[in-house]
């Protein structure tokens, strides 16, 4: 399948070698060819996007008229936002979420809402993995990852509370970039956990995600062909390494060898006890806050919730405030300790998921190798390009220092180019 390279398309748009309308029609053809089987979109309005694509001056802006998908957990004023739930079917927010407004100001054309699981939780959606339709695309940003992997979009916005950017990117074989916490504002999304919810981006390559982040935020993140010079990369398998499949271990080993061949200094690194202990704090913080965030739905619209989510929220209401407060203190200690770790390394390399996408649709997969990095708020990037023997994508995850997103992207770009060779 043909992926759409956002940075290259934007360069062509800026140079006048193509037009926003031509790019949009390319997207429309891909949607016509793949959407019926992939089912990545919760709402789609190509006619509105066509009218926007014909506006004068669009190519003078950073995104230059590139089509963008927005996860249906994020408010949009001109498209319905149902949060993946029948409770909000047909809901029309009054305002765009700030990240959507920023995307439009940068010249992005919001063509549709991409499928999310119910309230970005665990109930699998209807979306299928375009790399193998019999396998899960992951969750909760299933539609965003699948739309990019199917070549139906060059860019899509998702969210992550535990592993919902990195995991679907790994399963679908694309770049997933979870920036430093709050680099992209989370206002205007349906909150699950206000200390953990993080906006993220999906694109074909690391440089495409970096370009999009730069365009949307105005920050110096567009790395282009830049790669890190002899970075120090610590291989982190974590205390949960036994849960990773043989394919995941093989992918991590292959990525380490590729990085070393490109001049990186690669070594195994055991996480300090304070960091390993913080992994258990993430679900406590997530669930305590979710019980508060969804208190209204649980009290007044319980019948409209899936049994899976309702039971989870019921259990979450039993978490004591003292337990939650202790988990937050554990997280704070871990963040401080992580600063010490990054005194020795430029980036960490670890699993994106326990293995390739699971067959069937009973689960969206496990976030066990992502939740710690979400808790710590540091940038994380799924790097695509590795596969199992039978062709399923297996991602590896690169983790950077808090607030050092450009450095993390440059190391990720090195690793991606090393793997592709």
From TrEMBL:
Record PANTHER family: GLUTAMYL-TRNA(GLN) AMIDOTRANSFERASE SUBUNIT A, TRANSAMIDASE
Protein name: Amidase
Superkingdom of origin: Bacteria
Family: Belongs to the amidase family.
Gene3D superfamilies on file: Amidase signature (AS) domain
GO molecular function: catalytic activity
UniProt domain Amidase: residue ranges: 23-408
Source species of the chain: Xanthobacter autotrophicus (strain ATCC BAA-1158 / Py2)
InterPro entries in the cross-refs: Amidase, Amidase_dom, AS_sf
């Amino acid at each position: 399948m043909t992926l759409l390279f956002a940075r290259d398309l934007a360069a062509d748009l800026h140079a006048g070698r193509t037009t926003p309308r031509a790019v949009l029609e390319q997207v429309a053809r891909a949607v016509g060819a793949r959407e019926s089987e992939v089912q990545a979109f919760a709402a789609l309005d190509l006619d509105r996007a066509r009218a926007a694509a014909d506006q004068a001056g669009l190519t003078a802006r950073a995104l230059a008229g590139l089509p963008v998908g927005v996860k249906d957990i994020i408010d949009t004023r001109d498209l319905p936002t149902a949060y993946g739930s029948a409770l909000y079917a047909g809901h029309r927010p009054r305002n765009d979420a700030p990240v959507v407004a920023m995307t439009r100001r940068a010249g992005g054309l919001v063509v549709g809402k991409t499928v999310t699981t119910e309230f970005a939780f665990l109930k699998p959606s209807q979306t299928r993995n375009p790399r193998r339709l019999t396998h899960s695309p992951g969750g909760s940003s299933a539609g965003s990852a699948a739309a990019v992997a199917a070549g139906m979009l060059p860019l899509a916005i998702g969210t992550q509370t535990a592993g919902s950017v990195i995991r679907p990117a790994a399963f679908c074989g694309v770049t997933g970039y979870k920036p430093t916490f709050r680099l992209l504002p989370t206002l205007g999304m349906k909150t699950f956990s206000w200390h953990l919810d993080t906006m993220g981006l999906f694109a074909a390559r690391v440089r495409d995600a970096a370009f999009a982040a730069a365009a949307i935020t105005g920050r110096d993140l567009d790395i282009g062909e830049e790669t890190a010079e002899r970075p120090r990369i610590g291989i982190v398998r974590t205390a949960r390494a036994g849960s990773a499949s043989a394919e995941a271990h093989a992918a991590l080993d292959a990525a380490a060898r590729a990085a070393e061949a490109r001049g990186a200094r690669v070594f195994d690194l055991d996480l300090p006890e304070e960091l390993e202990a913080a992994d258990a704090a993430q679900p406590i913080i997530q669930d305590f806050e979710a019980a508060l965030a969804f208190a209204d739905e649980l009290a007044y619209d319980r019948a409209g919730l899936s049994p899976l989510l309702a039971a989870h929220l019921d259990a979450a209401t039993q978490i004591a405030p003292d337990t939650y407060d202790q988990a937050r203190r554990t997280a704070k200690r871990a963040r401080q300790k992580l600063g010490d770790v990054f005194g020795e390394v430029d980036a960490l390399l670890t699993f994106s998921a326990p293995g390739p996408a699971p067959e069937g649709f009973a689960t969206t997969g496990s976030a066990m190798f992502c939740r710690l990095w979400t808790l710590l708020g540091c940038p994380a990037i799924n790097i695509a390009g590795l596969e199992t023997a039978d062709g399923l994508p297996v991602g590896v995850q690169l983790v950077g220092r808090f607030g050092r997103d450009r450095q993390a992207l440059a190391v990720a770009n090195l690793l991606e180019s090393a793997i592709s060779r």
